Amino acid sequence: MSSKAAVVALTALAPISWGSTYFVTTEFLPPDRPLFTGLMRALPAGLLLVGLTRMLPRGAWWWKSAVLGALNIGAFFPLLFLAAYRLPGGVAAVVGSVGPLFVVGLATLLLGERPTAKSLLTAVAAAFGVSLVVLKAGAAFDLVGVAAGLLSALSMSVGVVLTKRWGRPEGVGALALTGWQLTAGGLVILPVAFLIEGAPPALTGTHLAGYAYLALGNTAISYFLWFRGIGRLSASSVTLLGPLSPITAAIIGWAALGQALGPVQVLGMVIAFGATLAGQLGPRARREPVPLTTEPFSSAEENGRKDSMDLEVSGVRR
Question: What is the value of pTM for the model shown?
Answer without folding.
Answer: 0.81
